[in-house]
Amino acid sequence: MGCGSFFKAIIGSKKGKQTSRKSEKGFIKPKASKKNVTRSASLVFLSEDRAATRIQTTFKAYKARKMLRRLKGIARAKLLTEKQPVKKQAAVTLKYLHSWSNIQSQIKARRVGMVMEGRLIFKRLENQQKLEAKLHDIEVEWNGGTETKDEILERIHQREEAMIKRERALAYAFSLSSADGKTQWLGGYELGNTNWGWSWKERWIAARPWEIDVDIGLSTFPNEVTRLVIGVVTSLVVEMAFLTGKYTGRICIAGYQCH
């Protein structure tokens, strides 16, 4: 039952009692004096004031009981928290919370470490694949000699560096020898042409500086063709040897005398 319905019930009961008393006495006059009207109005105002006062008193008592109940609950909770088992339980709870936060931080750090480790493994595998591809391109085969893996790899790197240096030297020599816009030993390519490049023969010779001696079987060709081919190959090899600095003074062709 709410406060509004309670107020209505109290006011209704007062008015019902007054009408019932008037009907029992049979005091019903069609015309009342002015004095009786003012008296009845004052009685109505008094009854309403009393009802309002009673309502306020009841509401204040309700609020006071509610506040008292709340204060009693707070005091009971304070007493419970001040006891030893509660303090121990709170300390254990805080300890578990700290442990859980540490576990979460360790899991997060482990995940980051696994990601970084995976990236390093992937990078290592990628470098290994690149090295294997490079070895395959250079066509290096592992032999059963006394050289170690590091020595072979170092030799491969030295060869690569020497190849780069030779290509630079050949490009420099090509630029010097093509002052008139034409080359003398690359088929007359123009220097300004963007499509010029080393022929397969120059690339093959530049990639194999350790193979200075030329072994070509020309016994099946006629003598004139053989002499012509020997002259061209000798001139090309000597020129490349001079440019690369690997000329030893003799070039041997199978079945013929050394030049």
UniProtKB/TrEMBL annotation:
Q: Which GO terms describe its molecular function?
A: calmodulin binding
Listed A to Z, the keywords are: Calmodulin-binding
**What superkingdom does the record give?**
Eukaryota
Q: What family is reported?
A: Belongs to the IQD family.
For this entry, the protein name equals Uncharacterized protein
Native organism is: Brassica campestris (Field mustard)
The organism's taxonomic lineage, starting at the top:
Eukaryota, Viridiplantae, Streptophyta, Embryophyta, Tracheophyta
